[in-house]
Design a protein that fits this description.
- Chain A is mainly α and about 500 residues long.
- Chain A folds into two domains: about 160 residues, no CATH class; about 325 residues, Neurolysin, domain 3.
- Chain A has a three-stranded mixed β-sheet, sandwiched between helices.
- In chain A, helix 1 runs antiparallel to helix 2 and helix 12 packs across helix 18.
- The longest helix of chain A is centred in the N-terminal third of the chain and has 29 residues.
- Chains A and B meet through helix 1, helix 2 and strand 1 of A and helix 1, helix 2 and strand 1 of B.
């Protein structure tokens, strides 16, 4: 190993310590820290994020990366280190253009906005959140001006979360979905079934936690390399492939929410736990492509978790852990978890109308960054779009524009990833069945481990080393298309609703 | 404010960020991190502890402290800042003598030993822990040689946890206790009652958590400035008065353990939550005197929590939250929580025989540091002393020498603090009753808030600014004596056991 590479690796190891503690501070703020303790955490997070930023934009790092990029060093690197150097050099050249004070302001506002969002949602008062949202938008625009000068802001944001994606491509995919799904959902809604009151009962939250543990184990989440916390909104984060954390939120009168959040976050977590451990603590590890990440969480949640056969081997156990389920047949449960209806909350939406929730947010974000719609007009715009696509209007902001944490976190451009993930899932399902056989049969016979092993092999182990388009091409041998997802929806729901 | 003071305060604020994240890493290792994630945390803890150590021993800090100690700066300081500068200068002069690599080795060994201790205790295998214990002993001796050159090692350790205490003083206090309590416990044991089998039943751990929350609220722990986690052994830590964390461990077949651990740790936490917030993040805050700290946890646990009248206002609620208690009368509960018996586990011991558990550990530590008894001989020595004082011999190391985490953490000299705390409690109880009236009457009428307010005013708010001997003198007007504790024991247990 060259002296320069050794020096570089020591430097990365130091940088990693800062990322480690900022990750932990964030985790604890969301899961454990008391109200009055938040300010101390924000202060520490600001301090260490700023230090980490200084390390990631230092002259020294720039010199090392420039040195390693020279042929005499670069040619001697392994493929993994070639990837790391190339990727870090590109990020470095982008990030060093962000002034340190702007970055510090972003991190601090991110933390404050997160706390205010929780309060605003509790009080259903968008006006509390509005000034923080405005700050996050302004800082995002400002930072994008530094990182991607001359690029259209929203395209830059999309590329940041799903490299290689732009709004022209997404417009095409989403228009295909709209064209096919708007009339299809109308057909479904004509055959709408009444609400099943059994799911409105009281489901002990401790029992829900036991069900969650059972399901995480069943789908392949490893407890020795991960843990579970409780937060306002479920999320997953990781320190490395050896320590992956997910959270959940339990509602006494809605057991379905925590069950599917667990499977969803479990899918994210299984991805991270199975990245090649050699990539740990480098830019090659921890998948940075959000659409590809969502494809895994949504594969577990929807393609597997909302399949009748997924539940056959575990439904009795579900009833043992959460006794009210003993009075609910698997057929009723299956209908409930695939009950297509127009509803307000994205995370509780069925997998079909979910598409509209994302298309709405995608169009909201285009309105913010492309049409510069004022922040105070956003709740009304949200409500109009809800009415247009889902034929319903939120009674308040908590069930409207305040429902998601993403914007408080500065995560503009993230939402389309969810639907891109489902689009990839349609394609992955086709290929998985070609290679492993019928998914219904695999699930029915409890062979979900084979599916997880296939995803480990085909997707997870690569971490960030393959961009989404390349990953899908490598696994499926095709360009990205919404057709398989549409076909999956039509086959499943035509049967379920006897259309 | 002088320019130097301002510069000093900025420096302290930076130092505090490092303490903040090392505290958080420790907390998470004990409460949330998965097994495979421990190594990453140990690495980060080592990194940031070493950085913190560098900051706390830097030339720059030394110069600032020397400058502030000069009359022209010192005289202009407030009393609080005079205390901070004096105390930090003394600590600085001690700590800067520790070589950085020795300190880093100590922190890393501390983390590793903590993990190995958990495993050794699970497997009841002292041989796993022995090499780590040896390392902790060696490092402790080495570090004490730097911090307190020429001082007897064990006296230096005692002084570190309870400033102003030495083994000559403790020998005197503990001999008084032995002299009075050995025959008194014999009297009690002659009147021994059979075990109450009701407490061996199954007590839902979620119900135990609800009881814990109720009790913490009842004694005055504030949830907005603290939170509760789960760990192998209960402990309390704090970031500041605004964020105080405690942990508990729940046993399905022993509800008493978690109840009294909650009250005990709650007492520690109430102390920290009520330190003058102006002292936050300085050496004036967060009480550093372990005996004084234990006096508060043990006042809540024993003087209040094991008093019949404490339970009168909340016993019905206890039964609602943990239904098996509905079948147990308050009289039976009272007898159970004051059931004097010779037992193996310190944290489950009654308050009388508890004294022997501490005297044993005190004598073990004198054997380690004064008589240099080899590590491999310690389990046998432990067992002989158990037989001598408590007339029983542990069947294995898990219920013997491996039961406490303290030594894994390098906390030699800490154990005597528990009993010093109880000795102070006897004195505090006398004074409290002189000033507020009969404690039974206060508790019976649910006026525990008045007691907490009295302790806040008399002890808590001062944080570290008053040494234990000075604090007890200021509150009670007397030198430290074991007589009030002995009198309290005799009065209570003579009645209870009809001696």
């Amino acid at each position: 190993m060259s002296k320069l590479l050794e020096e570089f690796q020591d430097y990365l190891s130091k940088m990693n310590q800062y990322e480690h503690v900022t990750t932990l501070l964030y985790w604890d703020m969301k899961t454990g820290a008391p109200k009055l303790g938040q300010a101390g955490h924000v202060e520490a997070l600001t301090h260490f994020s700023t230090e980490a930023f200084a390390l990631s934009t230092s002259e020294k790092l720039g010199e090392m990366l420039a040195g390693l990029a020279k042929p005499e060093e670069f040619d001697a690197l392994t493929d993994t280190w070639k990837f790391i150097v190339t990727r870090m050099k590109r990020d470095f050249d982008r990030d060093k253009r962000i002034p340190a004070d702007v970055y510090a302001a972003f991190v601090q506002t991110q933390a404050e906005a997160g706390n205010v969002w929780v309060e605003a949602k509790e009080k259903s008062d968008f006006s509390l959140f509005a000034p923080y949202l405005q700050k996050m938008i302004d800082l995002t625009v400002e930072i994008t001006g530094y990182t991607d000068p001359g690029m259209e802001v929203y395209d830059a944001l999309l590329d940041q979360y799903e490299e290689g994606m732009d709004s022209a491509t997404i417009d095409g995919l989403f228009e295909d979905l709209k064209k096919e799904l708007i009339p299809f959902v109308k057909e479904i809604l004509l055959r709408q079934k009444p609400e099943n009151q059994a799911f409105k009962g009281c489901f002990d939250t401790n029992g829900q936690k036991s069900v969650q543990d059972m399901l995480l184990d069943y789908i392949g989440f490893r407890k020795d390399a991960g843990s579970v916390g409780e937060s306002e909104h479920p999320f997953t984060l990781n320190f490395s492939s050896k320590d992956v954390r997910l959270t959940n939120h339990y509602y006494e009168h809605d057991p379905i929410s925590a069950i599917f959040s667990a499977i969803h976050e479990g899918g994210h977590a299984i991805f991270e736990q199975n990245v090649n451990p050699e990539y740990d603590n480098t830019v090659a590890g921890s998948c940075r492509y959000m659409g590809l990440h969502e494809s895994q969480s949504r594969f577990y949640e929807n393609i597997l978790g909302r399949n009748y056969n997924f539940w056959l081997p575990v439904y009795d156990t579900l009833g043992e852990l959460l006794p009210p389920f003993q009075a609910i047949s698997l057929d009723d449960f299956y209908r409930e978890i695939n009950h297509v209806k127009n509803s307000f909350i994205r995370v509780n939406a069925d997998e079909v109308t979910y598409c509209f929730h994302i298309i709405l947010r995608y169009e909201m974000e285009k309105a913010i960054f492309r049409d510069h719609v004022p922040v105070n007009d956003l709740p009304a715009l949200w409500n109009r779009k809800m009415q247009e696509y889902l034929l319903i209007t939120p009674a308040n902001d908590a069930e409207g524009i305040l429902q998601d944490m993403h914007w408080s976190d500065g995560g503009f451009g993230y939402f389309p990833s969810y639907l891109l993930g489902s689009i990839y899932d349609g394609m992955l399902l086709d290929t998985l069945q070609e290679e492993l056989g019928d998914v219904d049969e695999l699930l029915k016979s409890g062979k979900i481990g084979e599916i997880t092993a296939w995803l480990n092999r085909k997707i997870h182990r690569y971490g960030s080393t393959r961009k989404p388009k390349d990953a899908i091409m490598a696994v499926c041998g095709k360009e990205i298309s919404a057709e398989p997802l549409i076909r999956y929806f039509k086959k499943k729901y035509t049967k379920l609703y006897q259309i």
